Amino acid sequence: MAKTDVKAPAKVEKAPSETGKASAAAKAEITVAEKLVELFRLQHLDSQVDRIKVQRGELPLEVQDLEDEVAGLETRLKKLQDELGEVETQVSDKQNLIKDAKAQIKKYEGQQAKVRNNREYDSLTKEIEFQNLEIQLAEKRIKEAKAQIDGKKSVVEESKTRHDERKKDLDIKKKELNDIIAETEKEEKDLQKKSDVASKHIEERLLSAYHRIRSNSRNGLAVVAVERGSCGGCFNAIPPQRQLDISSHKKIIVCEHCGRILVDDYVVERVKGGK
């Protein structure tokens, strides 16, 4: 029996209808609304992270300043100790020079007892005089160096005391900061994780705008709700027509005064109501 080729029915391309256009428009509106929901959700999460950071107050900055100061004091202390070591080495060198000069003098005096003429005697006498001058100069340098050593030791001691005090302050501030961080670390990590997830749901262009507005805002608010007819960020009044545009979710609306992204109660409820 011969096989019969059975052809699958060809798909018929349907022309877009008015109903299709309306559906696409509705989808676009929902898309804008969802974008606003995700933006406000991100803002809501970031604001909670900001709240936790505010609890730490100025402690992180104080700790950083103290760490810089302690590091600077340690560098200064090391430099002073190195300089002190150099001067002490100079004293030791001069003391050795004096010791060698005295040995030379003793040798020359012994040679003087054995000379056979005045010329040799005078030559040895000059050598002895020279060595005595070397001793006097070395003693003068030692005296000056010891004065420097006393001064540097005083400065080193003051610097060490200052360093120890600031190190103690740093340890106290670090403990305070670590205690606060320990209390809020888990909550902050959870919020940051949720914030990262929320960021992935927002297109790059909007996310970039969000971070730009947020960085330029003193309170870190880039997306705010309309409250009693006013912007929730700068509190300037929003015209009724603009409020209608915001609630229609046809496009993203920003405040004419502060540039923050504006959302209505629907978006706020979607985020804070946990829907």
Q: What is the overall silhouette?
A: rod-shaped
Number of extended strands: 3
Q: Which runs of at least 5 residues are low in confidence (pLDDT < 50)?
A: 1-20, 22-30
| Residue-averaged pLDDT | 86
Number of helices: 6
Q: Could you give the distance between the termini?
A: 64 Å
| CATH fold field value of the largest domain | Helix Hairpins
Quickly name the level 1 CATH class of the largest domain. Mainly Alpha
Looking across the biggest beta sheet, what order are the strands in?
A: 2-1-3
Helix fraction, binned, reads over 70%
Biggest β-sheet strands, sense, barrel? 3 strands, mixed
Describe the structure.
Helix content is 75%, strand content 4%. With 275 residues, the chain is mainly alpha-helical. It folds into 2 domains: 28-54 and 203-275, Helix Hairpins, CATH 1.10.287; 58-196, Helix Hairpins (Orthogonal Bundle). β1 and β2 (230-231) form a beta hairpin. The longest helix is centred in the middle third of the chain and has 83 residues, at 118-200. Mean pLDDT is 86; it is low at 1-20 and 22-30.
What's the topology here?
Layout: H1 18-55, H2 59-112, H3 118-200, H4 204-216, E1 223-227, E2 230-231, H5 240-248, E3 261-263, H6 265-272
Parallel strand pairs: 1-3
Antiparallel strand pairs: 1-2
